Amino acid sequence: MSKQPAIASLADDNLAAGGVAAVDRALTLLAAFGNGTPVLSLSALAGRTRLYKSTVLRLLASLEHAHLVVRRADGC
């Protein structure tokens, strides 16, 4: 049985009809970065997107692999 979050993520609140939930979540992560916030911690990303930290880490790994985000030397 899958665990349902108590509060839906921003991506789950705005799913694209006929879309892919994981892509919507990844795009929500990218949208969390604004002009004034080029660097965000894991906690900040999780808070802004209402996603579990473990989900954020998995999505960031894919985004990093695609060269869409860069992990800094200090881990941010």
Strand count, sense and barrel status of the largest sheet are: none
Count of alpha/pi helices: 4
Helix content range: 40-55%
CATH topology: Arc Repressor Mutant, subunit A
Task: Give the key terms.
Arc Repressor Mutant, subunit A, single chain, mainly alpha, 76 residues, globular
Short description:
With 76 residues, this protein is mainly alpha-helical.
Describe the structure.
By secondary structure, this protein is an all-alpha fold. It has one domain: Arc Repressor Mutant, subunit A. 49% of the residues lie in helices and 0% in strands. It is built from four helices and no strands. It has helices spanning 10-13, 21-32, 42-49, 53-65. The longest helix has 13 residues, at 53-65. The chain starts with 9 loop residues before the first helix and ends in an 11-residue tail after the last helix. The relative contact order is 0.16. The model has no long low-confidence stretch (mean pLDDT 86). It comes from Paraburkholderia tuberum. This is IclR helix-turn-helix domain-containing protein.
Topology:
Layout: H1 10-13, H2 21-32, H3 42-49, H4 53-65
Helix pairs in contact: 2-4
